[in-house]
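Data follows
____________
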Amino acid sequence: MSIQDEIERLRKEIEEDQNSKLKIALFGQPGAGKSSLINLIVGEDVAVTGATTDVTVEAKLIEYEDLLLVDLPGYGTSKFPPNQWMQVFKPEELDLFLCVFSGKLHEADSAFFKQLKEKGRVCLFVRNKRDEIWQKGKTIEELEADIVSDVHKHVGSRENVYFVSCRNTESEEDRRRVAALVDGIYNSLGPAKKDKYMRAAKAYSQKHLEAKREVCEKMVYKYAGLAAANAINIIPGLNVGVDLAIVMKLFAEIRKSYGLSDQKI
């Protein structure tokens, strides 16, 4: 392979990475906290909370770094019967699904999950508003076990259920549960998608910071390779400018991965 071929390979690889998004869709009943969960995952207020999607006829698209987060409208409603829903929103084009609920799992949600499973799509269950789970005479552990059992009964298979509270993330227990969800999403993705997710998602544990470091090291190798290839393939008068542009782009990518905005710096 010639130097020029190597330059083109590295440039193409970087461009393809930058031009593609990891697409994560959230569905569930109005008031379940899908927008709050989106903000929790990325660590920024990118989604407007308090809005409902029961009469929404279009998916809400929220772009954040390498992520495209899709807040889906109601499934199985009069506006979107099941067959029409699948035709309009094409779940096969999305990478991962999160079923978000804060009370009893609805029949429409479990029916949608079963269709996703038939299509080979991955879906995780997220029970939001854990801080509101309470029943006289039962512990929180017993109530969580009841919720997990109810989900298994509705969907007909033993699926993991992640319990989080978007309003409370200060305690070690709350952060551990959010970290478990981040890990669950990460482990459900392919290698290339894993890198995109870890670059964009907020770090809730030391393990996440280490994963971010590994992803950033991969970026350094790619950009350094591109700069080295450019140095060998001399373009009089342009090398310094090209190298500086490559380095500045690399710095920007690393800062984004760690959530370091100009304001925070």
Q: What stands out?
A: Strands lie at 22-27, 60-64, 67-71, 96-101, 123-127, 161-163. The radius of gyration is 21 Å. Residues 69 and 209 are 22 Å apart (CA to CA).
